[in-house]
Amino acid sequence: MNYFNYFTEIEDAFVRRRGKHLFLSPIDWALMETWKEQGIPLHLVLRGIERSFDSFEAKPRKRSVKTLLYCQEEVEAQYAEWLEAQVGANPSTNGNTESGTSFDFTAISTHLKETRQSIASLALLRASQQVDELSEALTRAASLLESIQVDFNNGLTVDTRKLEDSLTGLERMLNEALLAVVPQSELESAKKELKEQFKAYRSHMDPEVYRQTLQNLLLKKLREQVGIPRLSLFYL
């Protein structure tokens, strides 16, 4: 299994077990992104989803499962057990065995080209309106993406995990620039709105997971407003 199917595999598993097609909410996508950032292997997330639904179906309830947050506790329990099992394990077998190096060259090449073009166009538009930290970050990102694309197409960068590290670094740079240019009043207003959406789930979430998921939702909202595409290979 290609490690970069992380999001689609989780979505498919959740929808399949729920039994009815259901579009995942922005909160669900933010939670998946939090799991990815925590480094929770895909097979553990899928196992957690399966066990969550097994438990639910063993004791049927009137209410159906409508959100991936229902599976959060079991997913994180599976991860905690997995981490504990890694202690003292053979170093050669540690780590995420799903990362692999298999990839679709054409798909990644197209992804790099399209995101570079989108970022470059956005950089020009932003610079024509105002020169600020975000316009400069967009210009830098477009230039770096061009170099990354050339190296990849020439076969100089074939390790998809290293490529992903580079793209993640660029996304982090753009996120920081985006947060720096948005007025504080708008940020506080957006956070307040998101916290209200999360109110029913907060008591069931680990504080750090809650914080990170809330931050991912905020960044998602801001990126969509500006039109910044996702660079990570996980969004292929």
Please tag this protein with its features:
mainly alpha; globular; single chain; 236 residues; 9 helices
Describe the structure.
Helix content is 68%, strand content 0%. The protein is mainly alpha-helical. It has 2 domains: 3-89, no CATH class; 105-235. Helix 1 (6-18) packs parallel to helix 3 (42-58) and helix 2 packs across helix 9 (207-226). It has helices at 6-18, 26-38, 42-58, 72-86, 105-129, 133-153, 160-181, 184-198, 207-226. The longest helix has 25 residues, at 105-129.
Topology, please?
Blueprint: H1 6-18, H2 26-38, H3 42-58, H4 72-86, H5 105-129, H6 133-153, H7 160-181, H8 184-198, H9 207-226
Helix pairs in contact: 1-3, 2-9, 3-4, 5-6, 6-7, 8-9
Oligomer: single chain
Terminus-to-terminus distance: 15 Å
Query: Taking all residues together, what is the mean pLDDT?
Result: 85
Q: Tell me the domain tally.
A: 2
Question: What would a concise description of this structure say?
Answer:
The chain is mainly alpha-helical and 236 residues long.
